[in-house]
Amino acid sequence: MSYPTYLNPNDPLPLPRFFEQDPKLPDGLIAISDSMNPKRLIEAYQKGIFPWPSEDHPILWWFTSPRMTLRPEDMIIQRSLKKKIQKVLVNPDWEIKIDHSFETVIHSCANSPRQGQDGTWITPEIQKNYIALHHQGIAHSIETWYQDELVGGLYGINLGRMFYGESMFMKTADASKIALAALCAKAIQSRIALIDCQQETSHLKSLGAKLMDKSSFLDAIEQLVTEPSPNWCFNKEVLAYWL
């Protein structure tokens, strides 16, 4: 059997373990639907699938393999970033906030220019559904603030001991890296074993992300998503892990 499957509203997403790529279609495209909802998104992440839509098109569901992932303890903290973390820890003008301005973070990610991309995949429908997941305590934002201004951050999905990174933005140098460093330190503290990065990029490689084969990725998430989710309360002091 080959995919993608065209989904009716009540149809389950395919199981990626049995995915057979149609060579005539984009690599990783596993299903298509006319719409999405929070329940569908949770099902997708539990199976390692993520949406990647565009304006005026159906929702495209993807399972990329091999998968770019980051083990939190493997994050690479370059000397310059370590110095910046030291400054953040001692300067009260810098703060790390969790879920303080989720909607602003996702809007900022949507409006951030991406090299080699026109427009954004973070469509109004994506924003609406992830904001709904945020209200359910499933989607989270890690935010870097300087002098009471949001200057960078990221957002993603937490299921059990798994975090699915979605997007990040920055308005000042290293602000998104600081948010990621805080996320990884919190993940280590909370036994979150893996951060899904979805796409292979040189930027993610420079931060310590590596490719994981299909079976290993699916084995990991099938176990991790069933475990209890952590408490998402922390502040910038968590960054001291990297010093």
What does this entry look like structurally?
With 243 residues, the protein is of the alpha+beta class. It has two domains: 5-64, 2-Layer Sandwich (Alpha-Beta Plaits); 68-242, Aminopeptidase. Helix content is 31%, strand content 24%. It contains seven helices and eleven strands. A hairpin with a 2-residue loop joins β8 (149-159) and β9 (162-170). α3 packs antiparallel against α4.
Strand order of the largest sheet: 6-7-8-9-10-5-11
Structural class: alpha+beta
Shape: globular
Mean pLDDT: 93
The number of domains is 2
How many helix segments?
A: 7
Q: State the helical fraction.
A: 25-40%
**Which second-level CATH architecture of the largest domain applies?**
3-Layer(aba) Sandwich
Determine the CATH superfamily of the largest domain: Leucyl/phenylalanyl-tRNA-protein transferase, C-terminal domain
Q: Element order, helices and strands?
A: EEHEEEHEHHEEEHEHEH
**Strands, count:** 11
N- and C-termini, Cα separation: 51 Å
- Uncertain stretches of 5 or more adjacent residues: none
Beta-strand portion reads: 15-25%
The profile of the biggest β sheet is: 7 strands, mixed
Question: TL;DR?
Answer:
The chain is α+β, with helices and mostly antiparallel strands and 243 residues long.
Write the layout of secondary structure elements.
Layout: E1 5-7, E2 29-33, H1 38-46, E3 50-51, E4 59-62, E5 67-70, H2 79-90, E6 94-98, H3 102-111, H4 124-135, E7 139-146, E8 149-159, E9 162-170, H5 175-190, E10 194-198, H6 202-206, E11 210-212, H7 214-224
Parallel strand pairs: 1-2, 9-10
Antiparallel strand pairs: 2-4, 3-4, 5-10, 5-11, 6-7, 7-8, 8-9
Helix pairs in contact: 3-4
